[in-house]
Design brief:
The complex is a heterodimer of chains A (about 600) and B (about 700). Chain A has about 600 residues and is of the alpha+beta class. In chain A, about 20% of the residues lie in helices and about 20% in strands. The radius of gyration of chain A is 24 Å and the shape is globular. The termini of chain A are far apart. Chain B has about 700 residues and is of the alpha+beta class. Classes of the chains: A alpha+beta (about 600), B alpha+beta (about 700).
Chain lengths: ~600, ~700
């Protein structure tokens, strides 16, 4: 697999050396809760979401948040969820495609003790059962060696209720947030770290969307299927210079899309290969010692991973989900024959295509993939998209040029989304033609336009890619939007503050998904819009109802796509203004 | 071993006994290890005579706790590589050290993906993770099994109307038709259903596990923590004659407390000893089967066994539990239960205000103290007054008066481990004339002294109609109340049917409020029922004292299931659909109207001409179609990549209208060509055509 990466990287080196920048923005459906058959049955190791964004209050730092254990009921006692023992929870960072594999790995290992084994309550008289602590180890050499950077980190207790937290028979602390504050630690290498329960920042109408794509619901009220549930979050605040491949600080960036400031992030969990259930010894009198215990041994085997949200939930089909969870991103390219087509011809696209099953999914009526963009390009499943341009001189110098990486972006006929969905998930998008906004292109999508993204880190694996040089959008900026980069594109195309030139400007929300992922970003909506072709439109491959030559590309179909929403557009509560940003976990007694 | 002999001796003494007792709320996520293995987590067990078919007993074992109905895309179901079992002991005489089961039902499940190309669970009539099962039955203690159901069907998850009834989904009439279709009859006559159902259990999880705050005292309203949640249920309906040890039908019972009709039921889940995670994302299971979850009486492992012993408890069979001997780490949790600490002002009673109405007898009849660490009835040990009672050492006194400072060895322990015989002192105070050791009015006999935690049902006890005004979710506690206070029953000490004698802990009906009953029992309500009244009783006065009334009216704030039950098998209600409006949070959203595509601008007169080409890329002839909106001079020319005009397809004045021209590209080299469309000499459109 490293071989595959190497070959690919070499291919791309040519590209990198030509000094290209690229641009993209692309996308797919809704995070990763219970997303594959096997991991759905192992909640402790189930990686639900990954976020990577520039800290809004400390712009020289990056926040990485990996969430585990889906849909925890706040009142799920008497044994409330926590991070599991015998599991390696890891956050991986690739910042350099010329070095094989991960450049930085954070590994978290948890341990549980019962401070009072005589009670069935979790917390009583200042003591806590299943009291959880952790060690954080860090590797900066691709996982060959690890150094402990935090020992005896404390995981905040479950937020059971007022008696357990603040009562004198409980922990007797002033409030739950005290426990959160107390559990934030600083690693010996400088990162601030929090591991603990939190409100699940993700939001999605699970009930509607998995009822054959009924989002927004066509009958009945939309609901946030994760409202009032918790997850367990691992949050890291790291200096940009500690993540940048040459340890440069962000002020040293050439510009806000400096390709040297791109990181690819993914998270995983692994378990030991062999689990043995021990039974009590027989004989008489019966000796129960050893019964009810588990031995875990053998190699570590990855059982869950996440990079881009929703890859394994709504892109990869059920037959391959368990396999996907077992691979690292560095193995993705070697398995492109298995997984590539889920992106080239995604299942979701069938439901946005009148010639396929669109009629069966009325909730997606607003989303219709370009079948005749610029009266010639058809991006529906099985069609050729831009493949007809293969080899043409018009592609010279663009990312679609075979000499650059066209063999990946235009691999074959009948794979229309190889130019947008596939690279968004697997390489990031360079600031290079045609991946610039249509602004300034004068009707030719292949022409140079206005830059809006460069999170190009072409290792071929599914990762969340963030260009750390892109300035953070203030959360109170009136232009802040949960539509992330889609909104940046809209502004770059339509807002007079930005659409008058092709120069690089900081457009609000350029720091949003899929350039990293902020807690606020509505990734379900963005990914559905992306499957609906919005990225293609942004770069000038307008919807069918646009007539070339017309001055106004904002046609009704584009408006429909931009207005499309699943109905659940924000989290069910706020976020904290400061680290760890995720909100206090819902209290067991406070939810209905 | 020693104990086992004692159990046999007790049985041979042909005891009858009588009690009623209980402890806390079922078994959801009750032990650390099993909480992390939801598929094998046994949540509840119910055993009751079928209200619509009194010759049959219904046994329901539930698994997979707190299923969110919206928990897709991989909805909950039974797991593969797990043995789900229901065990029945109907004869304590033939028990061996390792096994006492007389009947075992074993369910194993299999899943297939009918359409592995989709991430949806149900699409176009096909279902992924479609689950079927095999049911095997053993009647020889688990040595041999015969298959009695093959290819049993588990209905799909109740995802929502589109998946279940729409044409793009299964196209079923409704979800209940899927349930009906899934009910099957085994070759040995049992009616069987395996599928998802509303969780019939009810409990304020949030309050009760916040240090026992049920009913809540901290200002929030109680919430049924399992409301709108589903479980995976195994339901079987069996002829009483098939369960009775001598295959007798219920009419042959000597009376409604005939000891020969007692069954002990427990359920379990087992996994293979070794699980291997393979690097391709699959898993292998090998080795012998190891029990990972079990359930008999509700709440044993949830609120009686402390955390340090919960995993061990799950790994044992009730028969192994009975044979623990010196390793018995469980009985003490019944002799001196943790919950009793919170009902005792000399311990932590003050720290749990919700339980204030519950105060254990510290001075019953002026002398008996049942608080933890006190002696209870142990001071009577060896007293001739015990002769002929269950507390007589010659009968069961060695177990029931097991030692000093084990006060609840006379009530809580036997309710969980042996059942209660219809024998002094386990009869209602009615007719005892103030002496708890005297004979009183019988109200229970579910005595099956095998020494293990089981749900014990005397199948001879008649059914209380669910529509009977005296039907009560307080089960046997209410039967005792009626037997003590209702003139219809309290005028004599005869054996007669009292409503709710068929209720928990004589078996367990779906309606029974076992949390409330068990909390009342910990606070001594069973002791009171047999005449060991609360501290505020004065001899000669009414035994229905304020303290007793406080205990009887105590409730957790959640007293019934969040929905109804069905009147016929499988009784549990249709599972909540994923689209239901009671999980997650409501969102206000109004979908904007979907706009019609923008009109072709040619109809709007700008631009005036417009051209398209097909096919493109082209190898032979490209057909060009263009539209002229106002009469103009139209020129259409084909240029190569260098800008050289190689064809002129149209040049002249044209009326408004749609025109077709073709360009034969077969003679030109592969590459990009441009078709320029000019109106009145001005280029209006440049169309790119790729020659392959």
């Amino acid at each position: 697999m490293q071989q595959a990466k190497f070959t690919f990287k070499r291919k791309l080196k040519v590209f990198l050396l030509t000094g290209c920048l690229l641009v993209f923005s692309g996308i797919m459906m809704s995070s990763s809760h219970r997303e594959a058959p096997l991991i759905a049955n192992d909640p402790l190791a189930d990686n639900t979401d990954l976020y990577a964004f520039r800290s809004p209050d400390h712009p020289n730092k990056i926040i990485l948040i990996a969430d585990y254990i889906p849909a925890e009921l706040p009142y799920g006692g008497p044994n409330y969820n926590s991070f599991g023992e015998n599991i390696r929870y890891e956050i991986h960072i690739d910042n350099n495609t010329t070095t094989p594999g991960d450049d930085i790995i954070y590994r978290f290992l948890f341990k549980q003790t019962n401070q009072d084994p005589t009670t069935f309550f979790n917390i009583r008289l200042g003591k806590q059962n299943l009291y959880t602590t952790y060690t954080c180890e860090k590797s900066v050499n691709g996982g060959q060696t690890f150094t402990t950077v935090l020992s005896n980190g404390v995981v905040a207790a479950p937020n059971i209720g007022p008696r357990s937290i603040s009562g004198s028979a409980g922990l007797n602390v002033p409030d739950y947030n005290t426990l959160i504050t107390q559990s934030i630690s600083t690693a010996s290498t400088g990162e601030r770290i929090f591991c603990g329960p939190a409100d699940d920042p993700f939001y999605v109408d699970l009930g509607g969307i998995f009822d054959l794509g009924d989002a927004p619901r066509q009958g009945g009220k939309t609901r946030d299927g994760l409202g009032h549930y918790n997850v367990h979050s691992i949050c890291i605040e790291a200096d940009i210079s500690s993540l940048q491949k040459d340890h440069k600080s962000v002020d040293e960036a050439n510009n806000i899309l400096d390709g040297n400031f791109v990181i690819g992030v993914w998270a995983s969990s692994s378990r030991r290969a062999t689990r043995t259930l021990n039974s009590a010894a027989g004989g008489s009198p019966f000796n129960p010692l050893g019964g009810g215990t588990i031995t875990e041994e053998g190699n570590w085997v990855q059982v869950s991973r996440i990079g881009m949200p929703l890859t394994n939930e709504a892109v990869v089909a059920i037959g391959k989900k368990d396999f996907w969870n077992a691979l690292t991103p560095y193995q993705d390219l070697a398995n492109i024959s298995t997984f590539g087509n889920y992106f080239y011809n995604p299942e979701l696209a069938l439901y946005m295509d009148q010639s396929k099953f669109a009629g069966a999914v009325p909730a997606f009526n607003a989303l219709r993939i370009q079948s005749n963009s610029l009266k010639q390009f058809d991006f529906r499943n099985g069609r050729n998209g831009l493949y007809g341009l293969k080899g043409s001189s018009g592609l010279t110098g663009t990312a679609l040029d075979d000499a650059i990486f066209g063999t990946l972006l235009l691999p074959a006929a009948g794979e229309p989304r190889s130019v947008d969905l596939w690279p968004i998930f697997h390489t990031g998008v360079p600031n290079l033609r045609p991946y610039q906004l249509a602004t300034g292109k004068n009707g030719n999508p292949l022409a140079a336009g206005k830059p809006f993204i460069n999170n190009f880190l072409p290792n071929g694996g599914d990762m969340l890619r963030l260009n750390m040089a892109v300035p953070p959008t203030k959360r109170n900026d009136p232009k802040f939007s949960s539509l992330g980069l889609v909104q940046a594109a809209v502004l770059g195309l339509t807002d007079p503050a930005y659409n008058g030139s092709t120069s690089i400007q900081s457009i609000p929300n350029m720091d949003g998904f899929p350039n990293g992922r902020r807690l606020e970003d509505d990734v379900t909506r963005i990914e559905l819009q992306a499957v609906g072709g919005v990225v293609l439109a942004a770069i000038g491959l307008w919807y069918d109802d646009y007539t070339p030559g017309n001055a106004n590309p904002v046609t009704n179909q584009l408006i429909n796509t931009l207005q499309y929403s699943t109905g659940v557009e924000k989290n069910d509560t706020t976020f904290k203004q400061t680290f760890p940003y995720v909100q206090t976990p819902w209290r067991g007694t406070a939810v209905q | 071993m020693k104990r086992r002999k004692i159990y046999a001796a007790i049985l041979l003494a042909v005891m009858l006994v009588n009690t009623s007792i209980p402890l806390f709320a079922s078994s959801h996520r009750e032990a650390p290890m099993i909480a992390n293995d939801p598929l094998a987590d046994n949540t509840d067990l119910y055993v009751f005579r079928s209200p619509d078919d009194p010759t049959k007993v219904t046994i329901i074992a539930n698994y997979v706790p707190l299923q969110l109905p919206q928990g897709g895309p991989n909805y909950y179901s039974f797991g593969e590589n797990i043995r789900y079992e229901i065990h029945i002991d109907n004869n304590a005489v033939n028990n061996t050290f390792t096994n006492g089961d007389d009947i075992v039902y074993r369910f194993t499940f299999n899943k297939t993906n009918e359409d592995p190309s989709t991430f949806f669970n149900i699409r176009l009539g096909k279902q992924n993770l479609k689950t079927t099962y095999t049911l095997e039955k053993s009647t020889d203690g688990g040595v041999n099994f015969s298959t009695i159901v093959s290819n049993g069907m588990v209905p799909p998850p109740n995802i929502g109307p589109r998946s279940i009834t729409a044409a793009a989904g299964l196209g079923a009439a409704d979800y209940n038709s899927l349930i009906s279709n899934a009910i099957t009859t085994s070759t040995s006559g049992e009616k069987v259903f395996c599928g998802t159902a509303d969780d019939p259990f009810f409990v304020d999880l949030g309050g009760i596990f916040d240090l026992g705050d049920a009913p809540r005292t901290t200002g929030t309203m109680p919430v049924d923590g399992v409301k709108c949640k589903n479980v995976s249920t195994i339901a079987i309906q069996v002829n009483i004659a098939d369960l009775q040890k001598d295959h007798k039908s219920v009419e042959k019972a000597a009376n409604i407390l005939d000891a020969d009709y007692v069954i002990g039921v427990w359920a379990s889940a087992s996994r293979r000893k070794i699980r291997t995670l393979n690097t391709d994302g699959s898993q292998s299971y090998t080795g012998s089967w190891v029990q990972v979850s079990r359930l008999g009486m509700p709440l044993t492992n949830e609120a009686v066994i402390p955390i340090g012993n919960k995993d061990l408890w799950n790994s044992l069979t009730p028969y192994q539990e009975a044979g623990l001997g010196n390793y018995d780490v469980f009985s003490s949790s019944f002799y001196n239960p943790e919950l009793a600490l919170y009902m005792d002002d000399s311990q932590f009673g003050g720290a749990v205000p919700a339980l204030t109405p519950l105060r254990i007898q510290s001075k019953s009849l002026g002398q008996f103290d049942f608080r933890n660490g006190k002696d209870g009835l142990y001071s009577l040990k060896g007293n001739p007054a015990l002769a002929g009672t269950a507390l007589d050492d010659a009968i069961a006194g060695k177990l029931l008066l097991h030692g000093p400072a084990q006060p609840r060895s006379v009530d809580l322990w036997p309710i969980f481990f042996t059942g209660v015989p219809n024998l002094k002192p386990y009869q209602l105070a009615t007719g005892k004339n103030g002496n708890p050791l005297a004979a009183g009015k019988p109200f229970i006999n579910n005595f099956l002294p095998n020494g293990g935690d089981m749900l014990r049902l005397n199948m001879a006890v008649p059914i209380t109609k669910r529509s009977d005004p005296k039907f009560s979710s307080l089960g046997l506690v209410q039967a005792a109340v009626l037997g003590l206070t209702d003139p219809a029953y309290n005028g004599n000490a005869n054996l007669e049917f009292i409503p709710n004698m068929d209720g928990f802990p004589n078996g367990r009906r779906l309606e029974d409020d076992v949390t409330r009953i068990e909390l009342q029992a910990v606070s001594g309500v069973v002791l009171a029922a047999i005449g060991l009244w609360y501290d505020d009783y004065t001899p000669g006065g009414s035994p229905v004292t304020p303290n007793l009334l406080k205990v009887l009216t105590y409730n957790t704030g959640v007293n019934a299931n969040d929905t109804t039950l069905k009147t016929g098998f499988p009784y549990e209600q249709t599972p909540w659909p994923g689209t239901c409006n009671c999980n997650g949070t409501a969102v206000d959203y109004t979908q904007p109207a979907v706009l019609q595509p923008t009109q072709d601008p040619m109809r709007l007169a700008a631009p005036e001409v417009f051209i398209s080409a097909a096919p493109n890329p082209v190898s032979g002839t490209a057909n060009l179609r263009y539209r002229v909106s106002v009469e103009s001079n139209v020129t259409i020319q084909v240029m190569d990549g260098h800008g050289t005009i190689i064809n002129t397809l149209q040049n002249g004045r044209q009326q408004a209208g749609t025109y077709n021209v073709s360009w034969n590209a077969s003679g030109v080299p592969a590459g990009i060509y441009y078709v320029n469309t000019m109106e009145n000499g001005v280029i209006k459109q440049s169309l790119k055509i790729v020659k392959q």
